[in-house]
Amino acid sequence: MNKPMILIVEDDAAVRNLISTTLKMQNYKFHVATTGSQALLEAVSNQPDIMLLDLGLPDMDGVEIITKVRSWSNMPIIVISARCEDRDKIEALDAGADDYITKPFSVEEFLARLRVTIRRINCVQTPHKENSIFVNGELKIDYVSGCAYCRGKELHLTPIEYKLLCLLAKNIGKVLTHTYITREVWGNAWDNNVASLRVFMATLRKKIEIDTANPEYIQTHIGIGYRMLKLD
Fold this sequence. Notes:
By secondary structure, the chain is α/β, with parallel strands linked by helices. The chain contains 8 helices and 12 strands.
């Protein structure tokens, strides 16, 4: 894709100016919102490709915004927040965020995370000429359209969930370590972030498994990683 349209949602003027100046220097197009209400309006009216979201907004919590956006869009959401506790990160990721950057942050880290997100978008949008359809039991992935189905119904997956599903599918039958998965999905910046991985695996399982306590498709190897089981 060409340079994505980015929505900056940040009420702190200094941080907002830092992000906007950085994006401008890299020739990214962007819109700005300073409240949650403005962010939702911008998201609906301008349909940006990526949202950069602060959690501590004056009119609503950022997690609420993530939940609202996820009800109708799979647009990647990168949280940029001063909240540094693991529970805050997990809450945001569980709600549907794709990445989490803690303030203060370096411009280099910010741009690296942004590039990873753009590569994921490109990966989803790039057609696979060979083996464009993956089928395993009642699970089907159409790589060309970027859609996945299970038991005849389309799965409404976030970009991270889709990337995880495709990674497991392309390595069906193999045990993938936590380190390998996090590097493939998030890059080295999130190397071996097992807590975040568990959150996304849990939400993915809820969407494809009949009984998450007895998974049919994704098997956990405790302390090691995950494997997609091959069904007849």
